[in-house]
Each structure stands twice: as C-alpha cells, then as structure tokens.
From TrEMBL:
Residues 482-502 have a biased composition (Acidic residues). Coiled coil: none annotated. It comes from Sinocyclocheilus rhinocerous. This is Protein ecdysoneless homolog. Residues 426-449, 473-511, 533-557 are annotated as: Disordered. GO terms for cellular component: nucleus. Residues 533-554 have a biased composition (Polar residues). The gene is LOC107717092.
Length: 612
C-alpha cells in the first residue's frame, strides 16, 4: 500500500495531534475544544520553546479541519535543515504533550516515514515494515504505542495486510491501550535517543566570543534567534550575495566590539569550519593566527557577512504594521505560562532585560502560532533592521562591557578521537557497549577481547546465518530466542499446518527423492573436483587423511571402481575459520566483507597479533 501522507521535504518533520476519543457530533464544538487544547499545550511547553534556537523553522501547531479520512486535529511541519537534533527535540515535545494531556495521541514522520521505528529497527516484530506501519504508530500517554497484528478473529489489533483509517486506529488505541503499548526493547531504544531532555537543550548551546559590529551585538542581545538565519546566509552564500559585502553599509567594521554570542552546536560548527577570506574593500582585517583573539575576530567577520547579506535582501520596509500579539486570544495564556515558569528571571517589568525577553517571546509567538503558512522568519533582514532602528545604544557602553563577558565554552566537542568515534559507531550499530564512563586499561581490553573470542562461536554463528531465512529483501541475521516476537511466526505456522495436512505422505516421498538426487549430484561433483586446484585448496580431515596415505600405494592400481573411497571428507569448520581469518588479515584492520558480516552476527575478533 502507498502511505496516505503528503510529500515532505527531505529535511523536515511533520506531526499531528488527535483526540483519542473525540465527540464528532458537533463539528463547531469539536473545533472550539481543539483550539482550547492548543492554548493549553502552548502554555505548557512555552518555557521550553522560547529559549530554543531553531536551525530553520520552529515547532508550530495550528488547527486543521477534517479532510477525507483524517479527522480534525492540530498539526504542523518543521524544516530542521542540517540540525537533526531539532527533529528529536520535537519528538520529546510530543512525548511531553501526550504525557500531560492524556486524551491526545501524536503521530510524527519525515520523508523516511516512521523514523521512530527506524530507531528501534533491531527490536521490531518481523511483520512490521513500512507497508504495514501506516496508521499504526502513535505517541500516547508519553509512550510509544503500536497496533498489534491481528491474526485471528477476536484478537486485539489490526490485520497487517490492510490499513486502518485514523479513526479506526484511534478507537483500537483507546479501547486496548495496554495491548498497544510497544514492547520494552522498542521503547527503551526510543528513550535512549531522547535521553537528557530537557536539560539537553542547554547542552546543545555553545557560547563564543565574537568581534562584531555594534549593531549586530545589539540585535543579538534582543533577538538571539536571528543567529540562525545569519549563519545560514553565510554558510549558503554565493558570489551574488558577496557583492553586498564589498562595502558594509549596514554594519560597518569600524564599530566592532567584543561580545558573547549564543549558538547551537550545529550553527557554531557551520560557521567555524568554513574557511573564508574577506574582500579587501570590506574593511575587515584579521590578526595573525597566533593572536589569542584570532578566533573571535574570524567568527565575528563571518557573522557580519551573514547579517549584511540578509539586510541587503530585505528590500523596502513594509508599510503594513504588524498586528499586536496581544490581540490574539492565545497570547494571554502563553504569557501567563512564561511568568509562572520564571522566564523573565525576576526582571522588573519595563526594564531593558525584561523588554529583550518580551521581544523574543513575541517573535516566537508570531512564528509558531499566528503564522498560517510558513513558520520560518519571513524576512530576517528586515527584522534585523527593525530591531536595530528601535534600539538605542552607546558604543562606549558596549566597549565597557567587554571586560565583563562570560567565559567561552570549550569547543573540544568538535574533535572526536578514533576511540570515541569507534564507540559511537558501535552504539549506532547496536553492539553492546558501555555508557562511555568506564575506563579500561589496554591490557584489560586485550584480555577481554581474547576471552570473548571463540572459534566455535565463529563457526556456529556462520552456520546459523547460512541456515537463516532469506528472500528478495536480503538475508536475515539470526536472532537470539529471547529477542523473537510471538507475532513473528504465527502466520507462517498457520499456513504451514494447512499445507501439511493437504500434501500428506506424497510430499515427504517427493522430498526424499529430491534429496537423494541432490546427494548423487554432489558426489559426482566431488569426484570431478578432487584432482583440480579447487579440490586441493581445501583442508581434509586429518584422521581420514592419515588412513588414506597409508593405503595410497595399494589403491593406485585398484581401478576406477575405488575412486569414491579416495575422496576424503573435508573439515568444514577448519576451512571456514581459515578462510575467514585470511580475509580479515587481508583487510589490514579496515572494514570489509568478513569483518562486516561477523560484526552483524555479534562476533568480535581481536586484532591480528602476527604482523608477518
């Protein structure tokens, strides 16, 4: 089936909030109820949202009327650009909303579909795939819920070969909540990805000193969120954009001051990692690289280019006055929640800091609530100019503040050691690793590797893999018994029982004949290969080999009727391990077919100690 969802941009996430048990008899009353819930939701999550810096678009909700099979709901779309952490913060918000409002169920997906299931792919039942997951996966009461596969009449769930409507799925979710709760390993995988929120919001910020024109310092003090479009403008610049930066009309470099700028880690990395030499006509000069403030000068120069590019695209000031947010009925609840949660940090109403915080709150409210189309900042350059024009400042005061700047954050997180990279890859690959806090001595690591290394495990793992099920979709990695889901085999067992009854003994006889024919064919093939290089490349069983050597002279003249007795059985396990080890040695510690296969089977072989 083709999922009935609209096309989503590559770097965007879409989310919908449904009433689990709606009263649809009165459409107008239903809409009023959803609007009231929207106000309550914004009041609940406002303190988290206002302080957040979004890469491209903020989290936003608005009312959507009933359309086709999709009932009326609250929903939105957020383009997160290069910062995938924005997408997972939205998942955290949805979990928080559904935990606080128990009558709400959330659906979230991106252009990959149900990306929550992708995160827990190793623990999913085999029947659950992209075709069978539509309208089955919900965040409800703060946890992941999946409608079970109904295989018999009277069971809870929905058949995997048909797609329930949203209303049908919500009814199953409401009536059989416990049965729909995802298995613990699936929920644990999602919880691990969201571990650290909401404190993780602050951890993803990065404060750095930047030597910027005074106007930029003032704008960012009142609108910290404008750092995102400025960095993006520099990061995605083209030659036409840089024409505006030959001479800086809006933010002249001779007014530069040192200030502290708050980035997200993604924005900081984008700005820091790009090499750029300014136009000589711009007036921006950099000190030598050994200068202690070289990085602050370089970051400020890049930021100034981003701001200047945006302001050059702002066009003429709009003659239309923006409607006051206070006229929106949702604003009062939004503002009360901010005050209740300490957003204004005890600042007196009317103070400079209070006004800055209020400006940020109003800006977010306009983007996330009152905007009916694109939630992103429509004209960031114009907003920068407006803030700059509305704010008076003294250049001397800004220079005096340089001596009292908070310390910079360390950017050591930009540099990942090979060991840390290996740990991250192992975590993402699903291999059992520690939480990173345990330190192991080199000798101890070697002992652990050798203790966990078993040739028997290698051979048995490969045999299990060969005997596992495969199809046009690929081979399946054998699972441990305790990882199998009861739904994995129910359908196949029922179908097999019917076939066995119908086929009876005739099928067994046919199978036996086919097996005999195959054995004869394999024997003939062994005889032909015995005298070739392929035959000599295998290692034979030692015991049989010794017997064959002792009687070699007597068999030499015995004739062709004794050829079969000369065929010595192979030591399959020894040949398997020998070939795998040779393949691993040829990889020289790099990734390759042998190491990838063994890793997927959960088998870790220590490095080769024989360097010859």
């Amino acid at each position: 089936t083709i999922q009935n969802i609209p096309s989503i941009p590559e770097d965007a996430v879409q989310y919908q909030l449904f009433l689990v048990h709606p009263d649809s008899s009165d459409a107008e009353a239903h809409e009023r109820f959803l609007q009231q819930i929207l106000q309550n939701i914004l009041a609940e999550i406002a303190p988290l949202l206002v302080q957040y810096i979004w890469q491209h678009q903020p989290f936003n909700l608005r009312y959507h009327p009933e359309k086709g099979d999709v009932p009326a709901h609250l929903g939105g779309v957020t383009e997160f650009g290069d910062n995938v952490e924005d997408e997972w913060f939205i998942v955290y918000l949805l979990k928080h909303i559904t935990c606080t409002f128990s009558d709400i169920a959330a659906v979230v997906y991106d252009n990959d579909g149900q990306f929550l299931l992708i995160e827990a792919a190793e623990h999913l039942p085999k029947w659950l795939d992209p075709d069978s997951s539509e309208n089955r996966v919900f965040l409800y009461r703060g946890e992941l819920h999946i409608l079970p596969n109904r295989t018999r009449c009277g069971e809870v769930g929905w058949p995997r070969d048909s797609v329930p409507t949203v209303v049908q799925a919500l009814e199953v979710l409401h009536s059989h909540t416990e049965s729909c709760l995802a298995k613990q390993p699936i929920r644990a995988a999602l919880a691990k990805r969201l571990d650290g929120y909401p404190d993780k919001i602050q951890q993803n910020f990065h404060c750095a000193h930047c030597y910027v024109p005074a106007g930029i310092a003032v704008v960012l003090s009142r609108r910290p969120d404008l750092i995102a479009p400025a960095v993006s403008a520099f990061y995605l610049r083209d030659p036409v954009d840089l024409q505006a930066c030959r001479t800086f009309h809006t933010f002249p470099p001779d007014t530069r001051v040192m200030t502290s700028v708050k980035f997200t880690r993604c924005l900081y990395a984008q700005l820091q990692q790009q090499r750029f030499v300014p136009d000589r006509r711009s007036g921006f000069t950099l000190p030598v690289r050994s200068h202690p403030q070289y990085r602050a000068h370089e970051l400020g120069m890049k930021l100034a280019h981003g701001f200047e590019i945006l302001c050059s695209k702002s066009g003429q000031s709009s003659s239309e006055k923006e409607a006051s947010v206070s006229s929106n009925p949702l604003w009062r609840g939004f503002l009360d929640s901010l005050k209740k949660n300490g957003y204004f940090k005890g600042e007196l109403e009317g103070s400079v800091r209070y006004k800055d915080l209020m400006t940020s709150a109003e800006s977010f409210f306009r983007q996330s609530v009152t905007s009916t189309h694109c939630p992103a900042i429509q004209n960031p350059g114009q907003e920068m100019l407006k803030v700059s024009e509305d704010t008076s400042y003294s250049l001397d005061d800004l220079k005096n503040q340089e001596a009292h700047l908070p310390p910079e954050d360390s950017d050591a997180w930009l540099d990942i050691s090979p060991q840390e990279l290996e740990r991250l890859l192992e975590e993402r690959g699903g291999r059992g690793v520690s939480d990173g806090t345990r330190k192991t001595a080199p000798d101890e690591e070697v002992q652990e590797e050798e203790a966990g290394y078993s040739l028997i495990a290698v051979t048995q793992g490969m045999k299990n893999f060969i005997n596992a099920m495969s199809s046009h979709e690929g081979a399946e990695i054998p699972s441990k018994d305790d990882e199998l889901d009861s739904d994995d085999f129910e359908d196949d067992d029922e179908e097999d029982e019917d076939e066995e009854v119908q086929n009876g003994e005739s099928q067994k006889q046919a199978d036996a004949e086919a097996l005999d024919n195959l054995r004869k064919y394999m024997d003939e093939m062994d005889q032909e290969l015995q005298s070739t290089n392929i035959g000599r490349s295998f290692t034979q069983n030692n015991r049989t080999s010794n017997t064959a050597d002792a009687s070699k002279s007597s068999l030499a003249d015995a004739g062709s009727e004794l050829v079969e007795e000369e065929i010595q059985p192979l030591d399959v396990d020894l040949n398997l391990v020998s070939n795998l080890l040779e393949s691993l040695a040829s990889q020289a510690g790099l990734a390759g077919p042998a190491s990838n296969l063994l890793q997927s089977l959960g088998i870790h072989i220590p490095p080769d100690a024989d360097q010859s």
